[in-house]
Amino acid sequence: MKNIGLIGWRGLVGSVLIQRMLENNDFTHYSQLNIFFHCFSTSQVGKQSPSIANGCNTLLDAYSIEQLQQMDIIICCQGSDYTKQVYSKLCDSGWNGYWVDSSSHLRMHQDATLILDPVNYQAITQAISDNRKLFIGANCTVSLMLMAINGLLKQDLVEWINPATYQAVSGAGAKAMRNLLQQMGGLYNHVNSDLQNVASSILDIDKKINHWSATSNDPANLFASNVIPFIDSMTANGQTREEYKAEVEANKILNSNQHIAIDGLCARVGAMRCHSQALTIKLKKNLSLATIEELLADSHEWIDIIANDAVATKKQLTPLATSGTLRVKIGRIRKLTLGNDYLSLFTVADQLLWGAAEPLRRLLNILVKAT
Ligand code: NAP
After folding, report:
1. Residue 351 in contact with ligand 1 by CB distance below 6 A
2. Alpha-carbon dihedral of residues 79, 80, 84, 87, nearest 10 degrees?
């Protein structure tokens, strides 16, 4: 018998995780294996647990070390502040279970394995057989970038990568999604009467929109009709922490002797879900586009190569066309005029799936099979 604790199950990542587990009948499968799920909360202790919890009917206290100690595996999607507060206390209490986390706090911990099994399955199984107990989901844009260009990385064809990201508001949590929708509605309501009047000036409408946006919203969270080229906090060298994570986390996952330089610019855009990235890749050698597409497509079963034409790109290579699916789309593949070894491509995938919940769900499967 095993006890698994779920923390953060009602947040965005947690609810997508539960949804994926239900879609795959994971809970039924686990209960046949005598595995019990217990839901914890930081804010609703003692209330009714969701029906997926077959271990305990009421929500347990996510701050109770005593209750957490009863778990063999803890899946935590609560966020870094919580992990900072609880993880070391739990370990200090002598707990020796598996901690699986979606937040960034423990990613660079020396004992942590970053999990993205289509890319580093062997590192994960090796860590389990080495009796390592800390498994952390990587930053969402990093996971999506590696899922997209795994075919080139596996063949050691990449010298450096310069990403420009276009990250959806859901990357900032449930509240940001609500903000975006309220702002869209606010904008529409503000100019609705002008829109009904065909004689109204579009420049006047534009002016009203700008005025409303600037006066009625916090600029840090103004997502509608906007792009914010700053995610997370500033580091000493002018990179944001989101930009900093690309190189360190990607190289930690790849765990190769060949360090790959990765640096670029991360921006928040007014999409609801799915992160998009334009990647400039310096290849180690000149390969034909046909070979590149073949390597990318053959890397795993979730890749979709989108033809570099207007119809396919606008129809398929967008957040809206990708949201809620496991597809990792790659399009606009071409050589830059800078030289034959400079590759440009655009990739889109759902950051709540491959960038967050899916690696956790799959890790749990691997862990249960292996232990
Ligand atoms: P979130 O939606 O803000 O949820 C986090 C917690 O907020 C919930 O578990 C819940 O805890 C609490 N909460 C308070 N009010 C809530 C409400 N009205 N609805 C739902 N939950 C509410 O955070 P998240 O986006 O899932 O991110 C969790 C962690 O994963 C973070 O460290 C984040 O950086 C990381 N991550 C996120 C993404 C992404 O795309 N969002 C991707 C990769 C990694 P209680 O039930 O205990 O109150």
Report:
1. yes
2. 50
**Helical segments of 161-282, H only:** 174-196, 202-216, 241-254
Q: Report whether residue 277 contacts ligand 1, using a CB cutoff of 6 Å.
A: no
CA end-to-end span of the chain: 11
The pLDDT tens digits of the residues spanning 237-267 come to 999 999 999 999 999 999 988 899 999 999 9
101: closest CA among 193, 211, 17, 226? 17
pLDDT in tens, 214-245: 998 899 999 999 999 999 999 999 999 999 99
pLDDT at 1 exceeding the cut of 80: no
Amino acid at 30: Y
Measure 93 CA to ligand 1 centroid, in angstroms.
Answer: 26
Residue 295 φ/ψ region, left for φ over 0, alpha for ψ in the -120 to 50 degree band, beta for the rest = alpha
Strand duo 2-7 + 73-76: pairing: parallel
Which residue type does 84 have? K
Q: Is the CB of 12 under 6 A from ligand 1?
A: yes
